[in-house]
Design goal:
Elements: H1 3-12, H2 18-46, H3 50-58, H4 66-72, H5 76-104
Helix pairs in contact: 2-3, 2-4, 2-5
Length: 116
């Protein structure tokens, strides 16, 4: 479901739909980061980039507790913090992904679209 629909549902339900929105957002973020990490490890294995793979094992993506962040949004300030963390993680993830693609496929000339 789109964010705008969750937001409208939150208004209609006096904020109750905001809890599943935050929970699903953090769960999907964690799942995506795990899948991306696994994909990068497999790509490096196929390219025989052993040294880079060892560096990747040291850089395991940070898991954020969806339940904890969902419970924290009962207060107003943590709700804004949760949205900030999700958007900041997205930018960091994009930069990491672009750096990985630039290293694995240097001929395509990947450039990050946003930097921190």
């Amino acid at each position: 479901m789109w964010f705008s629909m969750w937001f409208l549902a939150s208004i209609v339900t006096f904020g109750l739909a905001f809890f599943p929105l935050v929970y699903r957002s953090f769960e999907r973020r964690n799942q995506h980061f795990r899948r991306q990490h696994d994909m990068e490890k497999q790509a490096l294995r196929l390219l025989n980039a052993g040294e880079r793979e060892q560096q990747m094992n040291e850089h395991v993506p940070l898991e954020r507790s969806a339940t904890l962040w969902t419970a924290l949004i009962i207060l107003v300030i943590p709700a804004f913090a949760a949205m900030y963390v999700l958007s900041r993680d997205l930018i960091r993830h994009e930069n990491h992904q672009q750096a990985f693609l630039k290293e694995v496929l240097p001929e395509n000339g990947y450039k990050p679209s946003v930097s921190l």
